[in-house]
Amino acid sequence: MKLLVFGGTGFLGRQVVEAALAGGHEVTLFNRGLTNPELFPELERIVGDRDGDLAELRGRYFDAVVDVPARVPRHVRRSTETLAGVGHYTFVSSISVYRDFSGRGIDESAATREYEPSMGDEDMEWYGARKAECERIVENAFPGRALIVRPGLIVGPHDPTDRFTYWPVRLARGGEILAPGPPERSVQFVDARDLAPWIVRLVEEGRTGVFNATNEGVSMGELLAGARMTWVTDSFLLEQGVGEWMELPLWLADPEWLGMHHADVSRAVAAGLAFRPVAETVRDTAEWAETRGEHEPQAGLAPEREQELLEAWRARS
Question: Is the pLDDT of residue 317 over 70?
Fold first, then answer.
């Protein structure tokens, strides 16, 4: 196939391109040329900004489009209008589109968030609403030709966010590790190296519709296996003012967000989404993190903060 990939050199995007090339497809990239511009020098690359001119895409035909990074509705609208003649359009959305996370088993039929233009382009509070509106634009522009993928937290090597990488790095550092108990607490995420080839396979098959795309749930105990853990309670972490999700990655105590780690992914699994062992993701992510050199973490407990919490936990135990 002739594929157009929006992005294609970031975290998930590079894995999508590699999977497409492994499948023998002809890939064209459209991006701003700012993220890892050295990747894929052999491919046609159209340097542009979806807030600017899409003239170089007009009149071009592609069998399929994979839109990896878009999160601004007007960007998606302009892209779908410019590429109205393509055969198939995949939009990588997010599980964050759902309106209500207070229950377990959210499936693809659950209500999604409403969008207002006043929400702006960058405020993360409205990230899910923007993604939901992008979905609606794609589905309206390509009826019967649209694939919507809703990943959970995407993890693995090259993840720039540290929202998962914190844990492999912390495990590699060793010593006593503070973790949100109980050990059987379930968390969901998906390795980009599992997600990307699956997306390409669905494109090859011409699949349409909506798919939640994250793992079936692993326990924190399994994720952190082999380490010297000190398991603490939600109540303790909340008393200590620890921030959910970003300060202590993967941890969610607010019952209003229970469903974030309990999504129904049966439709994706039935369509072939499979997951490598979590230990492999942890190992490979830690090995990649070592190659970054000096790095200012974007998420996770600072060592001093973790030590303070461990001492406070021991003092009350």
Answer: no
| DSSP letters for 34-55 | -SSTTS-TTSEEEE--TTS--G
DSSP state of 121: S
Supply the Cα-derived Rg of the chain in whole angstroms.
20
Model pLDDT for residues 167-208, shown as the tens digit of each residue = 999 999 999 999 999 999 999 999 999 999 999 999 999 999
Q: What is the DSSP letter of 263?
A: B
Say if residues 48 and 228 touch (Cβ distance below 8 Å): no
Note the pTM of the prediction, 2 decimals.
0.97
**Residue 53 has what pLDDT?**
82
Starting from the edge strand earliest in sequence, which strands make up the sheet with 146-151, in order?
44-47, 26-31, 2-6, 64-67, 89-92, 146-151, 209-213
Residue 152 in tokens:
């959970």
**Nearest-angstrom CA–CA distance, 7 and 29:** 7
SS3 211: strand
Tell me the two tokens of residue 271. 């369509």
- pLDDT tens-digit map of 119-178: 988 888 999 999 999 999 999 999 999 999 999 999 999 998 999 999 999 999 999 999
67 neighbors 31 (Cβ within 8 angstroms): no
Helices (H), 106-264: 127-141, 166-173, 192-205, 220-223, 234-239
% of residues, the chain, pLDDT over 90: 95
Angle between helices 73-82 and 127-141 (to 10 degrees): 20
80 touches 141 (CB < 8 A): yes
Instruction: State how far the alpha carbon of 207 is from the alpha carbons of 94, 151, 179, 201, 211, in Å.
Output: 18, 16, 40, 9, 10
- CA dist list (Å): 314 to 220, 265, 317: 21, 39, 5
The residue assigned the tokens 């200590």 is 240
Backbone CA torsion sign across 233, 234, 235, 239: positive
More confident: 108 or 117: 108
Beta-bridge mates of residue 219: 186
